[in-house]
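Pipeline run #58 for the internal structure catalog. This entry was flagged by the ingest filter as a single-chain record with no existing model, so it goes straight to prediction. Upstream metadata was stripped on purpose; only the residue string is passed forward. Reviewer on rotation: M.T. Logging verbosity set to normal.
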Amino acid sequence: MSTAPNAAPASLYRQSIDGALAGAIGHHGLTAADLAPWRATAAAETRRLAREAADGSLALLTIPAARSDIADARAALEALSAGARTIVFLGTGGSALGGKTLAQLAGWNVPGFSDDGHRGRPRTRFYDNLDSDTLGRAIDGFDLDTTRFVVTSKSGGTPETLAQAIVVIDALRRAGHEAVIGRRMLFVTEPRAKGHRNGLRDLAEAFRVPCLDHHTGVGGRFSVLTNVGMLPAMARGLDPLALRKGAARVVDDVILAASERGDATLPPPALGAAVVVALARHKGIRVQVMMPYADRLASLGHWFAQLWAESLGKGGEGTTPVACVGPLDQHSQLQLFMDGPREHLVSIIRIARDGEGPRLHDDLARLAGLDAFAGRTIGDIVTAQAHAVPEALARAGRPVRTFDLERLDAEVMGALLMHFMLETIIAGRLLGIDPFDQPAVELAKVLTRERMAATAAR
């Protein structure tokens, strides 16, 4: 069985599942019979998503059309940025990974891009993992006159994030800045709810820190297109409307596909979910490898890993996500994917870069034994690698799918992010699990609090 590349509207990206099918990789791939029931169920879930978009019952689908929250976030960021040289984003998990992914698209933490801000904007920093050494050194090194802090916690009760906020507030107090803490910090958290304490709101009220409302209907790992992700995106100069425009095209494609009869016109997220679940059920594929071929997409893999693992790893279900980046991980993990256990689906994301970047001078390339590379660009090499690896995987009978991006900008990124969020939701529903909760994580939080209380009592 073969299929044409599955394209999003206006070809912002093209997904091909051919490398996961029996026609390409033999008996290790999916047959038409294997995939058929999952396609049918995915088509039903597509119609369900269309209904949820129409009635607003799935808040994620309403985000692309929203505008007032962007205006509020822009105004808050502009006020915070006055006199700032650095903006530090504090938060963890879904409160940070989406923002880092968007900031990286604009060059954050990418070699060769300026660290002195973007187009005259303040520098951006992320502290999303609680570490005593890292945070201690950071606090000691901040110029508190010119550094600003954005703190994000959906519930307002995440211990790691509250600890970061408390340390920053204390540092500002000790430096004599208590009177201006409200101009040096910005919080993003849910509105107060009866019966639930919001520690971040308590701190905000005590020190007059402005708060933006975290969308109550969108969980942290799905919040990249809300103000949680828009703040760091705008801090790096990305157009938030372009991000949402790309996301809206994917939602529109789902609605359009739902109006068709049968499963012949599955939208890309639904087809991706059907393939991933079918591979797990019929071929023992238990690992999802996300491998973009671009430094500016490296954080996308880590964002996807949380989205996939926390949404689907329940009740013995789910598959393990692995974040990679090409061509780097050709030299660290490809051997395993090619010749290790037959449990990986590799998703390659690539952009045509032919003719881009520095050129390898003819005489130097030949001197180094790279005759075939003489006169070619770095973009030529990476593009060749991004096509050679999926072909090699397919020849080895290893499932692979590819995403070809029309270009690498905010609109395409918005489409890609929405694709993976909808693919995750549909995959969860195909598995019969709730993709929005995270019951197992709560136990570790409870035990951490109990241990802290017990050790404090000694």
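catalog note: The radius of gyration is 23 Å.
catalog note: Residues 301 and 323 are 4 Å apart (CA to CA).
status: ready for reviewer M.T.
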